[in-house]
Automatic annotation (TrEMBL):
Ligase keyword on record: no
UniProt-recorded Gene Ontology molecular function terms: phosphatidylcholine lysophospholipase activity
Protein name per its UniProtKB record: SGNH/GDSL hydrolase family protein
Pfam families named among the record's database cross-references: NonGDSL
């Protein structure tokens, strides 16, 4: 089955301009445990750390990916830190991993949408480009209907506000459709957080997505699960 993994609704013009001038690029990766790197064998195996390595190799230029992940947070808690970080420092691109804990912990759908709206507005006001990173898939989701409504909300709002969105949910469903064993290899021992292999694959595909934001003329702006499988 072909699933859409990434959609770029607009180009990351600031990043592209900085790269053209060979100026360093600053990326803020913010979210909860998947950004912090819970489940990885070391901080160096978190997806932001591996993403920094990927982008430095791709761009042959200075790039810093700040890991602002904090395990267990809901979107509202992350939003407070996001807005504080944007006031304290300048970033060219923000990757906001959001929604898993909101769906699990009983945050209302109305409140979650309001959180997304406010975060998108805050990033835009800062002048940075934004990529939303939606919820993960894991085999023991208890209320699948509710959970998928939260996943859908991220995609819908990204489309309405013309924000780039990378769907971890679609990516991990693709791993599972290949085989349950493939998905398990991407997860740590708790069956929820990613393993080193999972974070490595996520970093690879997020790097590819960022490339399509920076150079839309050379990319379709959309990446499907078939393309992801070929890339691996």
């Amino acid at each position: 089955m072909t699933r859409q993994i990434f959609t770029a609704h607009e180009a990351a013009t600031t990043v592209g301009a900085k790269l053209a001038r060979r100026e360093p690029v600053r990326v803020l990766a913010i979210g909860s445990s998947s950004t912090e790197g819970i489940g990885a064998s070391s901080p160096e195996h978190s997806y932001p750390a591996q993403l920094e390595d990927e982008l430095r190799e791709d761009w042959k230029s200075g790039v810093t990916v700040v890991n602002a992940g904090k395990g267990g947070e809901t979107g509202a808690q992350t939003l407070e830190r996001l807005e504080a970080a944007l006031k304290a420092q300048s970033f060219d691109l923000v990757i906001w991993q959001v929604g898993t804990n909101d769906a699990i912990k009983g945050v209302s759908e109305e409140d979650f949408r309001a959180i997304l709206e406010r975060g998108i507005a805050s990033v835009r006001a800062s002048g940075a480009s934004l990529m939303l990173l939606d919820q993960q898939y894991f085999p023991t989701i208890r209320n699948l209907g509710r959970y998928e409504r939260f996943v859908g909300m991220v995609g819908t709002l990204a489309r309405e506000r013309k924000v780039a969105v990378f769907s971890r949910y679609a990516l991990m469903l693709d791993w599972n459709s290949q085989s349950p064993e493939e998905l398990r290899s991407m997860l740590s021992g708790d069956g929820f957080h990613m393993s080193d292999k999972g974070y490595d694959c996520l970093a690879d595909q997020v790097a590819e997505a960022i490339q399509s934001l920076v150079s839309p003329a050379r990319h379709s702006g959309q990446v499907t699960s078939n393309q992801v499988a070929k890339a691996r």
